[in-house]
Amino acid sequence: MTAIERRRDPTSLLLKGLSERECARFRNRNLRQPGHGRRVHAVELRDWIGGLKLPVPACHQPLATLALAGDSEAVTAAVDCARCLAGNPDPFTPLTVIDGGQLTLDLRPDTE
Fold it and tell me: How far apart are the first and last CA of the chain?
């Protein structure tokens, strides 16, 4: 039991309820964030406030703020996020390393 789960103040109860609701909603489901990209991500439970858990994209893609308010979708669609499929949690890994879909910029200074 986490420290926040023992507390009975309204804020702690609200946070605990939010965590439980979101974890239940994404049990055996993938995550699709709102927006134009609409990628489907694998889900992992990550530590949140006071030791509570919150479902987030497994690739460590930033979670939209509105996703906490239930705006992200729990779907059974197959994962199509290249980073989730590669199992690489580093969001700064160039996509060329994962799927060859993006060219990297050569930012080395000229030697001339």
Answer: 62
Nearest to residue 72, comparing CAs of 110, 109, 37, 96? 37
With contact defined as beta carbons under 8 Å apart, do 38 and 1 qualify? no
Tell me the C-alpha to C-alpha distance, in Å, between residue 61 and each of 57, 68, 107, 112: 6, 14, 24, 39
Q: Could you report the per-residue pLDDT of 14-34, keeping only the tens digit for each?
A: 888 888 898 999 999 999 877
Residue 42, classed as helix, strand or coil, is coil
Record the pTM: 0.66
> Residue 95 phi/psi, 5° resolution?
-65, -20
How far apart (Å, rounded) are the C-alpha atoms in residues 69 and 52?
16
SS3 assignment, position 109: coil
Residue 88 token pair: 């690489």
Inter-residue contact 79 to 42 (CB < 8 Å): yes
